């Protein structure tokens, strides 16, 4: 056992450095970590001794593998089994309180008043995307493996993921959301989810250069042209197949393409939770005007899925028992019929409250 903090926050030179520090869990984000990270960012936002922030993950495996899925499974299992308490109970659960604070952190990252450098090395999934892809300086590497895999656990991309993916051109964001597939660093650049590509062996020197020379000079010295994106090669058929209005039609269009890649894509989507797929596609097709409104809507949807049996079942199959054989309670027809309930407004005292950070009020 170690008493080392799970978030390390220190100022080196004039750079605030945040390190997610749970390497044995690929720096999976829990509630205490989200709050500690947020506190450091808010303190540095108005600190004249801090010029920029650099966020990274401890260890060699990744920035962040997502949220604490085991804890979410406990709440999902209880709430979906009891069928009592409804939205208020979901909002007051540990998962509901975590999401509220996590989404506030995501919004503040998007409006951070100083350069926010996210080193998206290794695994960057779910909540890891939330603490990185909303920043203004996003670095990927040859080791980056980025994904929003929520549909595979009976959930919907959150942490502002539907805001990001809905704005990716040529339906590549829809593809990423409905398949839950893994993207390379080059893919992330093509999709607009990252800004700079860097060989992973340069990261140590880059961090040092940020402290000594500043962000722009460090990027000029160490960022390189990304390699070809494998996803970009598939762009044409993805644009056509994923423009359909329903998940069922998207699957049919993928099968009609006739290539091995498109067939695998159809099979992958067909294996996911129908209600999660339907809600994800609805979110992408009815995108909100800004991130704050998206996060409020994602909070509603997250609480509804916490009460739906598909989420507990999906986490069980993928993370707890690892049999990879979920038995979904929904189908595509019933999923479409229940969409309005998933997106309905919460009671006024349960809706997510957000305030945008400014230097003058932190």
Automatic annotation (TrEMBL):
GO terms for molecular function: 3-hydroxyisobutyryl-CoA hydrolase activity. It holds the Pfam family ECH_2. InterPro entries: ClpP/crotonase-like_dom_sf, ECH_dom, HIBYL-CoA-H. It is an enzyme of class 3 (hydrolase). One of its GO terms (cellular component) is cytosol. It catalyses: 3-hydroxy-2-methylpropanoyl-CoA + H2O = 3-hydroxy-2-methylpropanoate + CoA + H(+). The keyword DNA-binding does not apply. This is 3-hydroxyisobutyryl-CoA hydrolase.
């Amino acid at each position: 056992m170690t008493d080392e903090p799970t978030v390390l926050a220190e100022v080196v030179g004039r750079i605030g450095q945040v390190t997610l520090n749970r390497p044995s869990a690929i720096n999976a984000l829990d509630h205490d970590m989200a709050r500690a990270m947020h506190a450091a960012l808010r303190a540095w936002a108005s600190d004249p001794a801090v010029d920029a922030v650099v966020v990274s993950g401890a260890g060699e495996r990744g920035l962040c593998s997502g949220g604490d899925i085991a804890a979410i499974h406990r709440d999902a299992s209880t709430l979906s089994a009891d069928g009592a308490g409804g939205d208020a109970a979901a909002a007051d659960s540990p998962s509901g309180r975590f999401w509220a604070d996590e989404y506030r952190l995501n919004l503040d990252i998007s409006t951070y008043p100083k350069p926010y450098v996210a080193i998206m090395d290794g695994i960057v999934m779910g909540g890891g995307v939330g603490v990185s892809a909303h920043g203004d300086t996003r670095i990927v590497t040859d080791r980056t493996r980025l994904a929003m895999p929520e549909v595979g656990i009976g959930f919907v991309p959150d942490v502002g993921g539907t805001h990001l993916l809905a704005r990716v051109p040529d339906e590549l964001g829809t593809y990423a959301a409905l398949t839950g597939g893994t993207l390379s660093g080059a893919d992330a650049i093509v999709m607009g989810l990252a800004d700079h590509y860097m060989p992973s062996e340069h990261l140590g020197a880059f961090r040092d250069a940020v402290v000594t020379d500043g962000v722009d000079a460090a990027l000029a010295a160490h960022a390189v042209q990304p390699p070809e994106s494998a996803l970009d090669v598939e762009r044409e058929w993805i644009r056509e197949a994923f423009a359909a209005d329903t998940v069922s039609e998207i699957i049919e269009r993928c099968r009609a393409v006739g290539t091995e890649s498109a067939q695998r894509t159809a099979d992958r989507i067909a294996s996911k939770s129908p209600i999660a797929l339907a809600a994800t596609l609805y979110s992408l097709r009815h995108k909100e005007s800004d991130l704050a409104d998206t996060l409020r809507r994602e909070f509603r949807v997250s609480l509804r899925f916490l009460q739906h049996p598909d989420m507990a079942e999906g986490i069980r199959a993928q993370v707890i028992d690892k049999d990879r054989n979920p038995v979904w309670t929904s189908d595509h027809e019933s999923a479409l019929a229940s969409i309005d309930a998933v997106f309905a407004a919460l009671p006024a005292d349960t809706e997510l409250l957000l305030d945008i950070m400014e230097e003058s009020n932190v």
